[in-house]
Amino acid sequence: MDSNTEVLAGWRSGVCGWDALVERYSRLVWSVPRSFRLSHADAADVYQCTWLCLAEHLTRIRQPEALGVWLVRTATHQSIAVLRARGREVSLDRWEPESSLPTPDEVAVANDRQRRLWTALMTLNERCQRLLWIAAHSPELSCAQVAEALGMKVSSVGRTRARCLTALRRKLEALR
Fold first, then answer.
1. I want to staple 79 with a disulfide (CB 3.0 to 4.6 A). Which of 8, 36, 37, 157 is the partner?
2. Helices (H), 58-103
3. 46 contacts: CB under 8 Å, gap ≥ 6
4. Numbers of helices and strands, H then E, in the chain
5. Domains of the chain, with CATH numbers?
6. What InterPro entries is this protein classified in (predicted)?
């Protein structure tokens, strides 16, 4: 059985055609939810739902040669439905009781602190800005990696970072 028409006719007449369809389109159907970057479990659900929809609508397929398009559209609709449902969910591990939310005063203080930090940081020279940025955002990097990224000697990374932090502290104190 080569064409989709022959496979569907075989399935309708009781000759096994389902396995041929699954084999032919399995990778295509699986690729759709993965292209939406769904988790493996969600992609597997979409995959199963797509084949279930086909089983439910198999007798109504009017253009068997367009079956691939039908499967992609169905898997796309299923993937979008999963994304919508996930967007409305609240993960319990990220849920915090309302009492732990910051007060408006706490938010204002934190915003002011961040503004002052960025203002002070931007007044440092570019080398200090880059070094402190790397230290804050990639603390796992070794001194050798930081030195290579900034074009510095490995032995000067620690001393330069200490000088930059001292300069940043002074500038922050001046902004108080």
1. 36
2. 67-88
3. 32, 33, 38, 75, 78, 79, 82
4. 8, 0
5. 4-88 (1.10.1740.10), 122-176 (1.10.10)
6. RNA_pol_sigma-70-like, RNA_pol_sigma-70_dom, RNA_pol_sigma70_r2, RNA_pol_sigma_r2, RNA_pol_sigma_r3/r4-like, WH-like_DNA-bd_sf
